[in-house]
Amino acid sequence: MTTVKTLFKEDEIRARVDALALEIVGEIGTDFTVIGVLKGAFVFMADLVRALDRAGAEPRIELMRLSSYGRGMTTSGEVKLVGNTPDDFEGKPVLLVDDIVDTGLSMAYGKDLLAGRNAENVWTCALLDKPSRRKVEINADFVGFEIDDVFVVGYGIDYAERFRHLPYIGLVEADE
Ligand code: IMP
Ligand code: MG
Whose Cα sits closest to atom 17 in ligand 1? Predict the structure, then answer.
Protein backbone atom coordinates (compact mmCIF):
# COMPACT_ATOMS: atom_id res chain seq x y z
CA MET A 1 0.00 0.00 0.00
CA THR A 2 1.12 3.53 -0.71
CA THR A 3 -0.21 6.66 0.93
CA VAL A 4 0.36 10.28 -0.05
CA LYS A 5 0.86 13.01 2.53
CA THR A 6 0.07 16.57 1.38
CA LEU A 7 3.07 18.88 0.98
CA PHE A 8 1.55 21.76 -1.06
CA LYS A 9 -2.22 22.24 -1.14
CA GLU A 10 -4.12 23.33 -4.24
CA ASP A 11 -4.57 26.92 -3.09
CA GLU A 12 -0.88 27.27 -2.15
CA ILE A 13 0.11 26.06 -5.60
CA ARG A 14 -2.37 28.40 -7.30
CA ALA A 15 -1.05 31.44 -5.39
CA ARG A 16 2.57 30.55 -6.19
CA VAL A 17 1.84 29.94 -9.89
CA ASP A 18 0.11 33.34 -10.14
CA ALA A 19 3.12 35.04 -8.51
CA LEU A 20 5.52 33.15 -10.80
CA ALA A 21 3.63 34.37 -13.88
CA LEU A 22 4.04 37.97 -12.73
CA GLU A 23 7.78 37.40 -12.16
CA ILE A 24 8.11 35.88 -15.62
CA VAL A 25 6.30 38.70 -17.42
CA GLY A 26 8.30 41.26 -15.43
CA GLU A 27 11.52 39.65 -16.60
CA ILE A 28 10.92 38.44 -20.14
CA GLY A 29 7.87 40.38 -21.32
CA THR A 30 4.67 39.17 -22.95
CA ASP A 31 5.85 37.73 -26.29
CA PHE A 32 7.60 34.37 -26.00
CA THR A 33 7.18 30.62 -26.50
CA VAL A 34 6.51 28.31 -23.59
CA ILE A 35 7.96 24.82 -24.07
CA GLY A 36 6.57 22.33 -21.60
CA VAL A 37 8.47 19.15 -20.82
CA LEU A 38 6.27 16.06 -20.97
CA LYS A 39 4.94 14.33 -19.16
CA GLY A 40 5.60 15.79 -15.72
CA ALA A 41 5.02 19.46 -16.52
CA PHE A 42 1.62 19.11 -18.18
CA VAL A 43 -0.54 20.21 -15.24
CA PHE A 44 1.83 22.95 -14.08
CA MET A 45 2.14 24.26 -17.62
CA ALA A 46 -1.63 24.32 -18.15
CA ASP A 47 -2.04 26.43 -15.01
CA LEU A 48 1.01 28.56 -15.72
CA VAL A 49 -0.08 29.62 -19.24
CA ARG A 50 -3.46 30.72 -17.90
CA ALA A 51 -1.72 32.65 -15.10
CA LEU A 52 0.52 34.18 -17.77
CA ASP A 53 -2.60 35.25 -19.64
CA ARG A 54 -3.90 36.99 -16.51
CA ALA A 55 -0.47 38.63 -16.20
CA GLY A 56 -0.88 40.04 -19.71
CA ALA A 57 1.28 37.61 -21.73
CA GLU A 58 0.38 36.00 -25.06
CA PRO A 59 2.73 32.99 -25.19
CA ARG A 60 2.88 30.44 -27.98
CA ILE A 61 2.85 26.88 -26.67
CA GLU A 62 5.08 23.95 -27.58
CA LEU A 63 5.71 20.60 -25.97
CA MET A 64 8.78 18.42 -25.83
CA ARG A 65 9.11 14.97 -24.35
CA LEU A 66 12.15 14.02 -22.34
CA SER A 67 12.50 10.77 -20.48
CA SER A 68 14.97 9.96 -17.74
CA TYR A 69 13.26 8.08 -14.95
CA GLY A 70 12.58 4.39 -15.15
CA ARG A 71 9.79 3.09 -13.00
CA GLY A 72 11.48 3.73 -9.67
CA MET A 73 12.31 6.64 -7.41
CA THR A 74 15.79 7.32 -8.73
CA THR A 75 16.80 8.77 -12.06
CA SER A 76 18.47 6.52 -14.61
CA GLY A 77 20.88 9.39 -15.26
CA GLU A 78 20.32 9.08 -18.98
CA VAL A 79 18.09 11.74 -20.53
CA LYS A 80 16.52 11.02 -23.90
CA LEU A 81 14.50 13.13 -26.29
CA VAL A 82 11.36 11.37 -27.49
CA GLY A 83 10.15 12.83 -30.80
CA ASN A 84 11.06 16.24 -32.18
CA THR A 85 12.53 19.41 -30.71
CA PRO A 86 10.50 22.56 -31.34
CA ASP A 87 12.76 25.00 -33.19
CA ASP A 88 10.89 27.93 -34.73
CA PHE A 89 10.96 30.80 -32.23
CA GLU A 90 11.18 33.81 -34.58
CA GLY A 91 13.99 35.32 -32.56
CA LYS A 92 11.73 35.60 -29.50
CA PRO A 93 12.52 34.33 -26.00
CA VAL A 94 11.76 30.74 -25.01
CA LEU A 95 10.64 29.60 -21.57
CA LEU A 96 11.45 25.94 -20.89
CA VAL A 97 9.00 24.65 -18.25
CA ASP A 98 9.56 21.49 -16.23
CA ASP A 99 8.03 20.02 -13.11
CA ILE A 100 11.16 19.45 -10.98
CA VAL A 101 14.86 20.21 -11.17
CA ASP A 102 16.46 17.29 -9.37
CA THR A 103 19.95 16.26 -10.58
CA GLY A 104 19.58 19.00 -13.20
CA LEU A 105 20.42 16.59 -16.03
CA SER A 106 17.05 16.98 -17.78
CA MET A 107 16.96 20.75 -17.63
CA ALA A 108 20.58 21.03 -18.77
CA TYR A 109 19.84 18.63 -21.63
CA GLY A 110 16.69 20.50 -22.66
CA LYS A 111 18.39 23.87 -22.49
CA ASP A 112 21.31 22.59 -24.61
CA LEU A 113 18.90 21.21 -27.20
CA LEU A 114 17.21 24.59 -27.58
CA ALA A 115 20.36 26.71 -27.44
CA GLY A 116 21.61 27.43 -30.91
CA ARG A 117 18.09 27.41 -32.37
CA ASN A 118 16.67 30.80 -33.30
CA ALA A 119 15.51 31.78 -29.81
CA GLU A 120 16.52 35.18 -28.48
CA ASN A 121 17.22 33.59 -25.11
CA VAL A 122 16.30 30.35 -23.35
CA TRP A 123 14.81 30.91 -19.89
CA THR A 124 14.01 28.07 -17.53
CA CYS A 125 11.19 27.55 -15.05
CA ALA A 126 10.47 24.68 -12.65
CA LEU A 127 7.67 24.31 -10.16
CA LEU A 128 9.92 22.45 -7.72
CA ASP A 129 13.64 22.62 -7.07
CA LYS A 130 15.74 20.13 -5.10
CA PRO A 131 19.08 21.96 -4.94
CA SER A 132 20.68 19.35 -2.67
CA ARG A 133 20.39 16.70 -5.42
CA ARG A 134 22.22 18.57 -8.18
CA LYS A 135 24.77 16.68 -10.34
CA VAL A 136 25.22 19.37 -12.97
CA GLU A 137 25.42 23.07 -12.35
CA ILE A 138 22.12 24.51 -13.50
CA ASN A 139 19.58 26.67 -11.73
CA ALA A 140 16.15 27.46 -13.11
CA ASP A 141 15.53 31.17 -13.66
CA PHE A 142 12.06 30.86 -12.11
CA VAL A 143 11.27 28.40 -9.30
CA GLY A 144 7.95 27.75 -7.58
CA PHE A 145 9.09 26.02 -4.41
CA GLU A 146 12.42 24.78 -3.11
CA ILE A 147 12.14 21.38 -1.40
CA ASP A 148 14.41 18.94 0.43
CA ASP A 149 15.53 15.62 -0.97
CA VAL A 150 12.09 14.00 -0.81
CA PHE A 151 10.11 12.11 -3.44
CA VAL A 152 6.95 13.95 -4.45
CA VAL A 153 3.92 13.12 -6.58
CA GLY A 154 0.78 14.80 -7.84
CA TYR A 155 -0.02 17.86 -9.96
CA GLY A 156 1.38 16.04 -13.01
CA ILE A 157 4.24 14.32 -11.20
CA ASP A 158 4.24 10.53 -11.00
CA TYR A 159 5.59 7.53 -9.21
CA ALA A 160 5.66 4.68 -11.75
CA GLU A 161 2.94 6.53 -13.76
CA ARG A 162 0.62 6.83 -10.76
CA PHE A 163 -0.62 9.96 -8.94
CA ARG A 164 -0.27 12.46 -11.80
CA HIS A 165 -3.99 13.27 -11.43
CA LEU A 166 -3.77 14.51 -7.82
CA PRO A 167 -4.63 18.23 -7.66
CA TYR A 168 -2.07 18.76 -4.86
CA ILE A 169 1.59 17.82 -4.33
CA GLY A 170 2.37 15.15 -1.77
CA LEU A 171 4.99 12.84 -0.37
CA VAL A 172 4.80 9.15 -1.12
CA GLU A 173 4.94 7.03 1.97
CA ALA A 174 5.38 3.34 1.40
CA ASP A 175 3.93 1.36 4.27
CA GLU A 176 4.18 -2.36 4.64
P1 IMP B 1 16.66 15.47 -13.19
O2 IMP B 1 17.05 15.25 -14.62
O3 IMP B 1 17.37 14.53 -12.27
O4 IMP B 1 16.77 16.90 -12.74
O5 IMP B 1 15.20 15.00 -13.05
C6 IMP B 1 14.17 15.72 -13.50
C7 IMP B 1 12.96 14.84 -13.67
O8 IMP B 1 12.94 13.71 -12.79
C9 IMP B 1 11.76 15.65 -13.32
O10 IMP B 1 11.30 16.35 -14.45
C11 IMP B 1 10.79 14.58 -12.86
O12 IMP B 1 10.09 14.08 -13.98
C13 IMP B 1 11.66 13.50 -12.28
N14 IMP B 1 11.68 13.62 -10.82
C15 IMP B 1 12.63 14.21 -10.05
N16 IMP B 1 12.30 14.19 -8.75
C17 IMP B 1 11.10 13.57 -8.69
C18 IMP B 1 10.19 13.27 -7.61
O19 IMP B 1 10.41 13.59 -6.43
N20 IMP B 1 9.04 12.63 -7.96
C21 IMP B 1 8.73 12.27 -9.24
N22 IMP B 1 9.53 12.57 -10.28
C23 IMP B 1 10.71 13.20 -10.00
MG1 MG C 1 10.14 15.26 -16.05
Answer: 151
Domain extent, residue 140, equals: 3-68+78-173
How many separate domains does the chain show?
1
Q: Helix or strand or coil: residue 52? A: helix
Q: Is 73 within a domain?
A: no
| Ligand 1 mean position, distance from CA 128 (Å) | 9
Tell me the per-residue pLDDT of 67-100, one tens digit each, with 9 for 90 and over: 875 556 666 678 989 998 888 888 999 999 999 9
Question: Is 161 among the domain residues?
Answer: yes
pLDDT tens digits, one per residue of 21-51? 999 999 999 999 999 999 999 999 999 999 9
Question: Where are the alpha helices (H) located in 55-164, listed in sequence order?
Answer: 105-114
Taking the C-alpha atoms of residue 102 and residue 77, their distance in angstroms, rounded to an integer, is 11
Ligand 2 is a single-atom ion; what residues have CB below 5 A from it? 40
In a domain, 148, yes or no: yes
